Amino acid sequence: MAALKFEDQKLPALDDYARLAEQFIPGRQAIFVIVESAFLELLPQTPSRILVAGAGGGEEILRLGFNNPNWSFVGVDTYEPMVELARKRLGETPVGARSQVHATTIDKLDDKDFDAATCILTAHFVPDDGAKLAFFKAIHTRLKPGAPLAIVDGVGVAGEDRTELLRRIWKRHSIRNGVAAEVAESNAENFKKVAVVSEQREEALLAEAGFSRVTPFFRGLAIKGWLAFA
Ligand SMILES: C[S@@+](CC[C@H](N)C(=O)[O-])C[C@H]1O[C@@H](n2cnc3c(N)ncnc32)[C@H](O)[C@@H]1O
Asked: In this structure, which topology does domain 6-156+195-229 adopt according to CATH?
């Protein structure tokens, strides 16, 4: 069965996307604060260029850029409506002047020598049939040696007890956060079709793509985040 693409989901009106993502994703706020703290620790206090793989909606560019005028951003996303949403939201803030978002795949991006990268809730839409590895390699080759990648993805093997338990709790968590029960149910069904892999597989693919010191830095139910270094 082909993996579910982001745009194959029944998406909310895109203007509501940021609010719904906040309700759906366990620890959504914490993820951005942790990524920002990691980059504050790791990047010099000089201008730094950050690659955002899967920039749709512009959320991490807004959150990371707001208090960090030294950081500029190049985002890529394959889904034009999300790129438009990102441009619109960013254009309404001072972060917009330090940001570009391109509707393209990352392997087509000419820019390189980035000081850091983010890939938040995106790689789990890329099938593990060689495409996920190629996607990680495309990020790796665009980073300076040693530069950090902050990556956050759904994890787990569908059908395994602990994965299914975490996903059931996740469904309740989103209802508890105000998501309608039928929307939470369809999101849970969709997630079964997304190209999520086990934590071990994701770590192995990152290593194969050339990343080292793969360091877990976030866990919220079936969502996991790592820092990895080019
Ligand atoms: C769940 S959204 C996350 C967006 C953003 N990182 C955030 O956390 O708000 C996933 C995004 O990944 C994009 N996407 C999916 N596959 C992609 C790929 N191969 N390259 C770039 N973007 C991709 C989708 O279009 C979508 O906008």
From this structure: Rossmann fold (3.40.50)
